[in-house]
Amino acid sequence: MTDIAASETGTTSEVLTTRDGVPLKRSLARALRREKMRALMLIAPLLLFILLAFVAPIADMLFRSVENNIVQNTLPNTVVALRDWNPNSGEIPGEPVFEALAGDLKIAVSQKTHTRLGSRLNYEQPGIASMFRKSGRKVKNLEEPPYREQFIEIHEGWGTVENWATIKQFSSKYTDGYFLSAIDRERTEQGIAEKPEKEQIYLFLFGRTFFLSVTITISCILLGYPIAFLLANLPLRSSNLLMIMVLLPFWTSLLVRTSAWKVLLQQQGVINDFLVWTGLVTDAGRLVMINNQTGTIIAMTHILLPFMILPLYSVMKTISPTYVRAAKSLGANDWTAFWKVYFPNTIPGIGAGSILCFILSIGFYITPELVGGTSGIFISNRIAYHISSSLNWGLGAALGVILLAIVMLFYWMYDKIVGIDNVKLG
Amino acid sequence: MAAKKSGKGGSAKNSATDKSYVRFENVQKSYDGEVLVVKDLNLDIPKGEFVTMLGPSGSGKTTCLMMLAGFEPATHGEIFLNDSPINMVPPHKRGIGMVFQNYALFPHMTIAENLAFPLQVRGMSKPDQEERVKRILDMVELPLMAGRRPAQLSGGQAQRVAVARALVFEPDLVLMDEPLGALDKQLREQMQYEIKHIHESLGVTVVYVTHDQTEALTMSDRVAVFNDGVIQQLSSPESLYEDPKNSFVAQFIGENNKLNGVVKGISKGICTVKLANGTIVKADQVNVDNVGDGTTLSIRPERIELQPKDKMDNIIEGRIEELIYLGDHIRVRMNVAGNDEFIVKVRNRGQKRNLSEGQKTKIGWANTDCKALDLVA
Lengths: 426, 377
Description:
A: MetI-like fold, 3 domains, two-stranded antiparallel sheet, B: Rossmann fold, CATH 2.40.50.140, disordered N terminus
């Protein structure tokens, strides 16, 4: 009895407990654990599938943007031997390291990889390239151990702590080099600097991707808004027909639609033929509407329109027509009623549609590839080039990471400005 | 203008005396070209009057309101506002305040912005706007709500803001489309009085649409009872209840007992009617013309005397089917002349009455309390 009385008085002032003194929160968590486990079991297959087929490959691919094996692969034994050496000691490494270096360098020379390593490390520590070249030429002349003095004789660089420190520093597996080149930067003697002007390409491509995506998103808003309005306000029978017309291209293959634009837009295509026939343009002055930015904008706007129309429609559907009526009865003309009352209520739809269109278009690949020519391609086309043609996966991965980060950044900014809770997708 | 008037029914007698502010002239409306939703409507509303359009759903009352507001064009006929035809005037130029069924407060604006909206579109200066908004908020007793959003208001508060918004630009005419429909009973009654008081203090003309007869009777100067696209009766709440012009109005307004019979004779406005079981009763002649016609008699339950002690105009016998105790009165369901839905209200005066179910008893009423109207099944 006294226990119960004590615990009851305790509940009012301190942590709530159950009758037998277990804190209420813990007791509740225990009671809910079973349900949580069951929920987890239900989503487990999908979770596993996504982890294996989506998250893991992407993570692996993105990881290549920082991976850096060149020192380790070229001088494997030296790297191991260097582990015990402390650059802060002020002394160059001991004989075992030089012994390993002699072995590694002989193999590297036979595979002709030592110069590549030299030029890679030269970004970090000037002079190393010549050290490796010279040592590479003379390594076959090395006599019996000890090697330390012989190496220093070949090139005095081997006797400086700084060079060894650089080798040790970059013997780690990771690098920021790919990211630097992905933003047209490189490490020079003066530290990080811009690449020569004619080698700069990626920042420009990022800029173009951004600019074209914004243009496409705006075109989608301008073209989609009236359609969505009609869809939401026409009688059911007509709006159903219109909805099918909106969705029809949605169900057609992306490739087919893009190819259709090729047929329509090319210089000997349907539109140009028509314009020449009507006399609006001369035969010599046929418009160039494909294999450039115009082509990309037209084709992608067409492809992404449903992604703008559907969220807009679902928001407009919920706006009661009495709002506009009320505005008019209060003295607003048609335009004011639309702009001050109807339009602000559709902003969540515009936001949702714009996010969808912008994020989809910033990563678009097929359409720019087919109709973009050289001036209409996106950053993703460059990524694809590095992944499948130049095989510079590290750079491709770095570009991909940056693209992902930009999308995340825009998403975050949108959340800050508009609030992601205001987005309605249906 | 007066020569043009061809109005039948309710319109003619009123427009002769008062200068009408709103006038419907032979207005017809059809949505699909097959069915007339409003059939030949004539209605005159003098300035400052509170007129309610009352009727069941689908009777055309809301359509009339929408035509007056300008959201629906009239298919035929003309609507006049202050003696000028407004058929071709767009809604925003009519200067009519309107309260919508679900208030239609703009969800993206605060209450103050909602109230300032009609002033803003009229180009009023900012300080004047603020001054007016403050005044109207005081009037509806919501001075602290200016910064809130419509979603943060209770139903009653939103209702008041909607009324305030329709009044803030000082229109001469305010339309209300079932504005109290979404409120609970208690709040609805309170708001009825508030709207009534606002009408009295501001002197605006109000056209009010509702399907709730209590609301119509409480608030209105005159009530237009709509059915089937036609105004059945246009008169004050009192005469609507006391002197219904036809069976529909008698049925629709208040509680009513029907007895069907055939007119056997008419003299000095009193009909002699033979009921289905052969009983002969007398009734006020209202909506029957000829001897031999079928008629439906209408008697209010509270005008019937159960077990009458004094001599009365009509005394007939009925059988008590059911007794329902309701505190202030007892509802007695009876079978009278073959109608077993005949209700008599007996006031509870405290004395014991020996009533029991199955008992046969006499009931009586005065000739003037029984109206001989058109026959309904």
